[in-house]
Amino acid sequence: MTELSLVQAVNAALKRAMSDDSSVLVLGEDVGIDGGVFRATDGLFKLFGEQRVIDTPLAEASIAGVSIGLAAQGFRPVAEIQFTGFAYACIDQIANHASRLRSRTRGRLTCPIVLRSPAGGGIKAVEHHSESPEAMFGHIPGVKVVMPSSPARAYGLLLSAIRDPDPVIFLEPTRLYRAARGEVSDDGKGLPLGQCVTLRSGRDATIVSWGAMIKEVLEAADQLAVEKIEAEVIDVASLKPLDTATILDSVGRTGRLVIVHEAPMTCGYGAEIAARVAGRALTSLLAPVERVTGYDTMMPYLRTEAHYMPSVGSILEAVRRIMAYS
Amino acid sequence: MQVKGHRWHSGEVAAGVANEPNIMTIAQRDNSMNCVLDANGKLVGTLPEFARDPAELLKLYRALVLTRTFDAKAVSLQRTGRLGTYASSLGQEAVSVGAASAMKLSDVFLPNFREHGGQLWRGVTLTELFLYWGGDERGNDYAGPREDFPNCVPVGSHPPHAVGVALAFRLRGEKRASVCVFGDGATSKGDFYEALNMAGVWKAPAVFLINSNGWAISVPRARQSAAETLAQKAVAAGIPGEQVDGNDVIAVRAVMERALARARQGNGPTLVEALTYRLCDHTTSDDASRYRDDAEVTRHWPAEPLVRLRNYLMAAGHWDKEKEETLQHECGSALKQAVEEYLATPPQVVSANFDFVYADLPAELAEQRETAIAGARGVA
Q1: Taking Cα atoms as reference points, which of A198, A195, A231 lies closest to residue A320?
Q2: Side-chain half-sphere of A199: how many Cα atoms within 13 Å?
Q3: Contact criterion met (CB below 8 Å) for A85 and A35
Q4: Residue pair A206/A318 in contact by the 8 Å Cβ criterion
């Protein structure tokens, strides 16, 4: 076990995957000698050379498109899109090609690519650098969407994403790249995709979240415990496929659900979770489902960014509201 | 019809022009046309090596005729409600057949939706083509060229795939190449420019072929780009670009062979603009008379690719009326059999739509699959 930051865990997983499997390639803007703008690919160029760590020209759509061609030929490309704000250009390639190559050819050609991208705000970045597009990708049949919230999960989930036979959008919470540190065992073991992780058990309310917001959710749960409210905290980890069973099981016990995400509320992934709970566990609910999310506005520039981000306080208020509901 | 042609050489920096020492020549154009046969089938160029073997020319001719016969059958099936919307390749057969005939089977073909001729040449079956255009995904599960890509319908979004495929060949040290075909409209798209640029940087063994048929649905070539030629778009990517008479199957094959040889030798990609003409509507859902003068179509008919090769073969004594009748009969029989096979193929079971979304069916999708199998949509 070594203590690593989340971005170091990403780096360790990439190193491990490339060592284990010569078909794994890394490509993207500045991923080579520079090691990526966040250093996620640091050292890979030196270790594996320019044949396997490929600096691309500045063209996001084609980074995805070239990956599709490589994947159809048996490589396992791990493409980095420098910021998710630039990944919108890839949606055509993902939705029209990567996601459906297997289906269109009835399994003749497949597309085992991973599109990694730092996502989310709260890092005082310039505009277009703080997006949370997980629901947009989640709406595309044929892709998987993963967002880790700790170094260990970043390591294990990225390994599984790379080994997965289908395209995976791997969103890395930028805010936690260096802020989240934890023990990681570089043992090459992947964590299962499509499985939630219960980070804290509690009988009074379920809080479901993913990515960087897990930090605020855990802080809120600590404070709630002082108020004798025991919150169960679930890190969704894989948004697609979604482990509905774990969430339903929890809500079945607590009867109360708060969903927390940074992306705007409307058509956000919280709506999907709320709908599933309403559809299958309505009679377990003791209070309306609450969503604590970003607003349906543009992500503000850095001076007012904090007004946008869901806070510990707003999570506490939501939980208190549903606890008071009768 | 004599087509003017241009060949672009890029990356050649001249020492300077007299009196203007600071001007660099970054692109040079010569007007040598890649054309072997004129519209009447008269030899106007030098026969390339392969074309000196009459058997090779006959193979090309048969492929052109089969493609056109398929085309006519597909349109008639669509008109009688037995096929989905279909994109005809009438008049453009030589682009597709010429390209595929220059390829090795181990190369990878990435077509748009109008390259039936090339697909047939590479071993996609008539039945598979009918299945595809009849709305059955199994039509893309080619028994023959297993690594070829299915048609790219979102126009011009597949050149990056060709770069990826080519890069895979280069990384593995294989002497293979990818061939990506798209229309003149596709050259207006960002993906096209991006792919050319990347392929240039990486010297990817890819050949980009423009089926330049004059029309992108209703938008004519003149309103697609102010560029004098589409081949010159290669210059900005630092790769060679050249034009070829796309109705001259011998010339197309010769140019493609040259480009593929360059690619296999590690000398990088080429952009080829094959000048042809869309004698048909865009698809069976289109009515070109809304935007295109019939006289223009009539004007282009004499330059179509089949007659000129037939005329040449006949003049050279390799072909006659009897052989033509036999070939027509053979193509007709092959088509008849394929249509029967296609129409006798029952649609896929509903579960198939779920079974290929992922390698492993996620729980949520498994539930939907059960619902669909139970007949949720009320479809018998």
Answers
A1: A231
A2: 26
A3: no
A4: no
Residues facing residue B179 across a β-bridge = B109, B207
Rounded Cα distance between A7 and A180, Å, is 9
Listed in sequence order, the DSSP H helices in chain A are 6-20, 44-48, 60-72, 91-96, 101-104, 134-138, 151-163, 176-179, 213-226, 244-254, 269-281, 305-308, 312-324
- The predicted-structure confidence for B230-247, as pLDDT tens digits, reads as follows 999 999 999 999 999 999
Residues of A in contact with B194 (CB under 8 A): 57, 59, 61-62, 65
pLDDT, tens digit, for every residue of B123-155? 999 999 999 999 999 999 999 999 999 999 999
The helix or strand, by DSSP H or E, that contains position B367, with its residue range, turns out to be helix B363-373
Residue of B nearest to A142 (CA): B357
Residue B378: pLDDT band with limits 50, 70, 90: confident
Beta bridge partners of A205: A231
Say which of B141, B161, B194 has its CB closest to residue A97: B161
Q: Which residues of A touch B109 (CB under 8 A)?
A: none
Q: What is the per-residue pLDDT for B134?
A: 98
Q: Is A103 on the interface with B (CB under 8 A)?
A: yes
From chain B, the residues in CB contact with A64 under 8 A are 160
Q: Residue length, chain B?
A: 380
Q: Is A231 helix (H, G, I), strand (E, B) or coil?
A: strand
Instruction: Note whether B164 contacts A102, CB cutoff 8 Å.
Output: no
Q: Are B68 and B86 in contact (CB under 8 A)?
A: no
Give B15's pLDDT tier (boundaries 50, 70, 90). very low
Nearest to B157 by CA among A173, A101, A146: A101
Place of tokens 């709908």: A275
Residues of B with catalytic function: 278, 282, 291
Nearest CA-CA partner of B170 in B203, B208, B209, B207: B203
Please write the tens of the pLDDT for every residue from A248-303. Answer: 999 999 999 999 999 999 999 999 999 999 999 999 999 999 999 999 999 999 99
Q: How confident is the model over B310-362, as pLDDT tens digits?
A: 999 999 999 999 999 999 999 999 999 999 999 999 999 999 999 999 999 99
